[in-house]
Every structure is written in C-alpha cells, then in structure tokens.
Amino acid sequence: MTRNFLAIPAVSFLAVALSPSLLFSQEKLVQVAHVSVSTAAQTPASSGLADEEMARLHMARKEYKEAEDIFYRLAVSSPKNPVYWNQLGIAHHNQAQLDQALKCYQKAAKVDPHYADAQNNIGTVLYERKKFPKAIRAYKRAISIRDNFAPFYLNLGYAFFSQKDFENSIASFRKALELDPTSLDPTRSRGGTVIQDRSIGVDRGRFYYLLAKSFAQQGDVDRAILYLRKARDEGCSEFNSVQKDPIFSMVLKSPAAEDLLAPKPVESAQP
C-alpha cells in the first residue's frame, strides 16, 4: 500500500508519546534495541504487542520515521484500533507533517468518537495553524469525553489566551492546576496526548501575571508569588504596577515575597 503524503515546513512541537504503563526494564530495553528495523518490519500481525513496544521505543528515542512505519503497519492491520491511528498521527506530528497527522487523528476519532486523546490532538493541529476557534471546539469535545484530565484544560487555556479571552483562559489553567498541580511542567509524560506548542500567540509574561493575579484573588499566596516571579523573569511590563494593585496587597506582605520587588543584582563585568 502506498502512502501519498505531502511534506510541510517544520514547526515547533511538544509531545511525549511514551506511556508510563509501557516503560521497559533496562534489561528489556537492551534486548529490544538489538532488534533491527528490517527484522521488526517482517514481524507478523499476530505479534502486534512486540511491534507496538518497538514503535514506542522509537518514539521515546525520537526516531519518528521508524515509529511511523511500524504504527502505519499496525493501523492498517488493525484499522478498528484508534490508538494505532492516534500514535501514527503523533509520529507524523513530530516530523512536522501536520496534514498527515490531522488525517490520522481524524481517523482515530472516526473509529472511536469517544476517544478523547484524538479529539485533543485534532485541536493541537488546528492551534498550530492558528485556527483558534476551531481548536477551542476540539478541546471542548475532548473535555466533554474526559473532564478530569489536566492537559486538555491546558490546551484550552492556551487557545483562549491566543484569542485574548483572558477570563476563560485563566479559568482553564486554574482547572488544570486543580486537577494536577504539576500540569505546567513540560517534562511530564502525557501518553497519547499532544501538548500544543506554547509559543504560538502567547505572551508568557502576561500569562504568568494574570495567573498570579487569579491565585491572589483566591488567597493562594504561594502560587501567586510563584507566578509573579515568573512574570518578572519574563519581563512582563504589568509587573511594574504590582504594588499599586490592591489584589496583590496580601501577597506582598508575605515574607516569601521580599525578593520580588528587589532590583536584580548587577553582574560585574568580566576582566
């Protein structure tokens, strides 16, 4: 079977495709690593699990073309398995092949309309194409299926932010952090869920400032300080008015905030 795909320009992308449930022991990793790609390509469909493990290993090692080849074979041999189509989409996505990725995510969603990861991942492609209203609808579909998963709210928050809908954006981020306090950590594994490129349409300094303000309004001093510090480090212009904003009055009284308004030390010139 021939795949007719068009290549498109590269874009920045963030995703982790290795599921924690499929992590290998060190010994098994060594064993799998010695299997050549050509041998794996000849593995019969009945050994799909071995193929899937190999494909995920390639994804973890950022060998996306090799992973694509295996997931394509798995998807064709098991066309009713939405996970294979979704993972094939992620392999394409990591190669900046958005057209192919979108088709695979849509195929996964068609096979299983209740597959939330596929709906979310459709949203990430639309987001990267700056089709923010359509991305928002896709993320909302994912949340309607699985409403307790923080990454979906993160993606929705970034999409709202890009639309300058700051109220809904911050509400989405707060929900994500409520579900998972570490959800803004980009090193977290997300399985088959794509976390969109956060550089598109997002003023990070202002984003952190508004998030800090939201936490301050809720009386969460520690988080307010955390994100105020991030806003300052990003050079947010609104940070300069923090002392005049009554919302931050309680936050600034905290001993933990003493260094927030202190001028940064000037680095001495190197001889």
What does this structure look like?
With 271 residues, the chain is mainly alpha-helical. The protein has a domain at 14-148: Tetratricopeptide repeat domain (Serine Threonine Protein Phosphatase 5, Tetratricopeptide repeat), CATH 1.25.40.10. The chain is 56% helix and 1% strand. The chain has 13 helices and 2 strands, in the order βααααααααααβααα. It has a two-stranded antiparallel ribbon. The longest helix is centred in the N-terminal third of the chain and has 14 residues, at 64-77.
Based on the model shown, name its key terms:
single chain; 271 residues; mainly alpha; Serine Threonine Protein Phosphatase 5, Tetratricopeptide repeat; two-stranded antiparallel sheet; 13 helices; 2 strands; 56% helix; elongated
What's the layout of helices and strands?
Blueprint: E1 14-15, H1 26-33, H2 37-41, H3 48-60, H4 64-77, H5 82-93, H6 98-111, H7 116-128, H8 132-145, H9 150-162, H10 166-179, E2 194-195, H11 204-217, H12 221-233, H13 249-252
Antiparallel strand pairs: 1-2
Helix pairs in contact: 3-4, 4-5, 5-6, 5-7, 6-7, 7-8, 8-9, 9-10, 10-11, 11-12
